[in-house]
Structure formats: structure tokens, C-alpha cells
Amino acid sequence: MNEPIVVDSVTALRSQVRDWRRAGLRVAMVPTMGALHDGHISLVRIALERAERCVVSIFVNPTQFAPAEDLDKYPRQLARDLDRLRDAGAHLAFTPGVGEMYPAGFATKISVGGPSRGLETDFRPNFFDGVATVVAKLFLQAAPDCAVFGEKDYQQLCVVRQLCRDLDLPVEIIGAPTVRDAHGLAMSSRNAYLGEAELDIARKFNVILRQTAASLTAKADEAGAMDAAANALVSAGFQKIDYVAARASVTLGPWQRHRDGRLLAAAWLGTTRLIDNVEIPAS
Length: 283
Ligand code: AMP
Fold this sequence. Notes:
By secondary structure, the chain is an alpha/beta fold. The protein has helices at residues 10-22, 38-50, 78-88, 98-101, 120-123, 127-142, 154-166, 196-202, 205-217, 222-236; strands spanning 5-7, 27-32, 53-58, 92-94, 146-150, 172-176, 240-248, 261-269, 272-280. It is globular, with a radius of gyration of 19 Å. The chain starts with a strand and ends with a strand. Bound molecules: adenosine monophosphate.
């Protein structure tokens, strides 16, 4: 495999992507915060099925972290990430510094409504403003034909689709299934914070969500099923449940039994916050 081209300036990124597009090559983008795992690599594979060139951005975006969150301790391992990107066949890694993305005097924020209301926003009020702003910048910088986002961050995927629709950003958004370990735990860079005992508990997260989704499909009462899920998470060892909620799968509006839905949850294990979601098939 060839080494990916590594650029840290917007100018160099633009000029490389322009060359590819002039040559008639389709370009896909995979935005990440690095500490790449198999979930990220699955997005690169999907990108390479959809386009001839794959750009991966690695940028730990400070505007999507609240002051008390884990920005400083977020795992950073660029050399290892570049090895993984080479093995996966990605063509370019965009690794801007904070000053390149947010130069002195930066003063713009993009705020998406609709699917960003509730769920994560109830607990991380500025999170999606940070995500929408950085994704809009990345799309304007790289001008990709398409971009791949994981269903692991399901609300984020819905917010990015809304952003592109509302701002007429000509980027096709492709949703990718969540990659899980052998126990069903969704892969996440934050799993690295978990000790052995916490990992055992974390692996029950997806099991409880799948059981809850199945009970909803089998006609369980929604409020009762949400209470039962929260209780099951606490019994499993989660210390705090931010939310467990059933929503409509596209708009994230109220769940309707006869339509496909999504069960989304966020819960704490010690100082680590995990999120996951599963489909609720229509009944
Ligand atoms: P992050 O580096 O956490 O910002 O994630 C970058 C992209 O990878 C996002 O589109 C995530 O949804 C996606 N992603 C993270 N974990 C997984 C996973 N386990 N399976 C599939 N996609 C994932």
C-alpha cells in the first residue's frame, strides 16, 4: 500500500483535491478525531467503494468539547493512525492544527435545529454547534463528492444530513453501520478509558438496548420500556443514565410504533460517558 499524503494546511488540501477532481476522480471524505479503530477503518472501506480517492481528516475539534470534558486527555496517536490509514488504502490525511481551523479572530458558529434538539443537546448544549461548524468547514475546505459518517453517533449523522440539506452543501452523506467487538460493544476511542471491570459492564449496554428495542417492537408500552431499560442499565453497573429514548429514525421526532425507529442512549461508567443506539423495527 502507498503511504497516504499528509497535509496540515487548507491550501495544500484544496490543491490536491482540485487535482484529483480535474482528473475526473470522485473524492470521499471521512471526518474523524483520530485514535483510529476498526469502526473508523470501516468508514474508509465504504468511502473507497464509493469513490476513487479517500480523504480522512484527523482533528480533535475543541469547539465540540465543553470546558469540563476530556479535550486534554482525548487520545492522540498520529503515527499509529497514519499506519492504519496506509493499510486501509486511504489517499490523504488532513491533520490541521487548531490555529489552521480556528485562526485568531474566528467568530462564526453554525447551529442546526431539527434533529439536534434534545438527547445529546440536553447534556452537551454546545456539542452540535461545534460539530456542525467543523463539518461545514471541512466540506468547504475539501469539497468532497461524498462523506461517510458512522451510525454509532446516530444523532450526529442526522444533524449532518440536515446541515447539508439546509445549506445546499453538495456532499452526499453516507451512513455506515456501527462496528462492534465480539461482545457487541460499539467501538469507540473512549473505550480506551475503561478498565477491565468497566469493560464487562460496558458490554451489557448493547444487550440491554437490543432487548428494549425488541420489547418495543413486541408492543411494550414506551414509557414502561424506557424505565425498565434505565433500571437494567443501573443494575448492570452504569452509575448515571443521561437518557434512553425511542425516536423516529430520520427526524428524531417522537417514536411511532408503525414506523422504523431508533433507540438511543447515553450512560456513564465512572468518568467515561458512552453512547450507543439500535434500530427499532416497525411493528
Ligand atoms: P470520531 O473520531 O469519534 O469523531 O468518529 C469519527 C467517525 O467515525 C464518526 O462518523 C463516527 O460515527 C464514526 N465511528 C466511530 N465509532 C464507530 C463505530 N464503532 N462504528 C462505525 N463508525 C464509527
